[in-house]
Write a structure and sequence with these properties.
single chain; mainly beta; Immunoglobulin-like; seven-stranded mixed sheet; five-stranded antiparallel sheet; elongated; disordered N terminus; signal
């Protein structure tokens, strides 16, 4: 039976009246049915190959690209890094999973919180889907611990009905028995084109009076030619206030190898412990640096060992970047400093 011309005209008018991007019910159902099932069970993820985005340059480092997970983790071979640089984690771990339709195709996608961890470490939220062949593919990184954001709450990720991914983020990451106060915020992210962008929540962290970015760096400890059965030398220790709360003083704790001992009369007041000793000195000016020179000696026949130096602030504050508050200067022999 032919459709009367008047009915055709009414259908055309109805189609034109629909808001842009709104499909008739039968068309929306067809789109949902044709979309790949991106709801990937946790058990599958834990044994899958996942495309992991690069870890941030200012946080714990680890492998990226296609990574094969075994029981939810990927081990990381040990790699030494220079003093003051972010260390490599011990493993990449799947921390939590959430689900929701972030690309508006009518089917759920999988939102994974990944960690590159030692005890604490880097975290990132990544969205995964399946392609038409059933392979797991990445839709991109949602959020990551970098800059002012230093932690993500693993179990806080949610996906709203409009496809916005929300998560709790913090300005400081605690580790072990650290109880430094943190500032937590809820931020929302949405897929815009081929990347996720922040669409809700604060965009900056307020100053945290309990956190400082005060760092330590050193030169080598160079021990000169033997004199009276000992080698003598000095090490330069530079303390720099980069940002955050400005401390009044800093305490430098020294952990020397067997045989290495203080010498000379220029040391500040020393507090001695069984395996270490420490000195407390004035902090550099806000945004500035100060270099201290410390003298040591060691029996001429002694070799090897490490001198570790750890910085703590007075009053005590959490370090913004924990790998910047300790140093291990190389102990070597050479011409003595004039």
């Amino acid at each position: 039976m032919e459709t009367p011309p008047r009915s055709l005209a009414l259908l055309a008018a109805l189609a034109l009246a629909l808001p842009l991007g709104v499909l008739p019910l039968h068309a929306a159902s067809a789109a949902s049915e044709s979309a790949p099932d991106g709801h990937i069970p946790l058990a599958t993820l834990r044994e899958a190959t996942l495309d992991v985005p690069a870890w941030p340059a200012d946080d714990v480092q680890g492998p990226s690209g296609p990574l094969r997970f075994d029981d939810g983790s990927v081990p990381i071979p040990h790699r030494a890094v220079p003093d003051g640089r972010p260390p490599y984690g011990e493993s990449v771990i799947i921390l939590s999973v959430a689900y929701g339709d972030v690309d508006h195709d009518g089917a759920e996608e999988t939102i994974v919180v990944l960690g590159c961890l030692i005890e604490g470490g880097s975290k990132q939220i990544v969205a995964y889907d399946r392609d038409t062949a059933g392979h797991i593919v990445s839709l991109g990184r949602v959020a990551v611990t970098t800059g002012q954001v230093r932690d993500l709450r693993d179990d806080s990720v949610r996906v709203s009905g409009s496809g916005v991914v929300t998560a709790r983020v913090a300005d400081y990451q605690r580790c072990c028995d650290d109880r430094t106060p943190q500032t937590w915020q809820t931020r929302g992210y949405a897929l815009r084109g081929d990347r996720f962008e922040q669409v809700s929540g604060p965009t900056r962290m307020p100053p945290n009076p309990h956190v400082t970015d005060t760092r330590i760096s050193t030169g080598d400890l160079v021990l000169g030619q033997p004199t009276g059965g000992y080698r003598y030398g000095t090490v330069d220790v530079t303390v720099t206030h980069v940002g955050g709360t400005h401390p009044e003083k800093v305490t430098l704790s020294f952990y020397p190898p067997t045989g290495l001992e203080r010498t000379g009369d220029d040391w500040p007041a020393v507090t001695t412990e069984p395996d270490s000793f420490s000195v407390t000195v004035a902090a550099p000016a806000a945004g500035g640096s100060v270099t201290h020179t410390f003298a040591f000696r060691r029996p001429a026949a002694s070799t090897g060992g490490d001198l570790s130096i750890l910085l703590a602030t007075v009053p005590q504050m959490g370090p913004a970047l924990p790998w910047t508050v300790d140093a291990t200067p190389t102990i070597r022999t050479g011409p003595s400093r004039p």
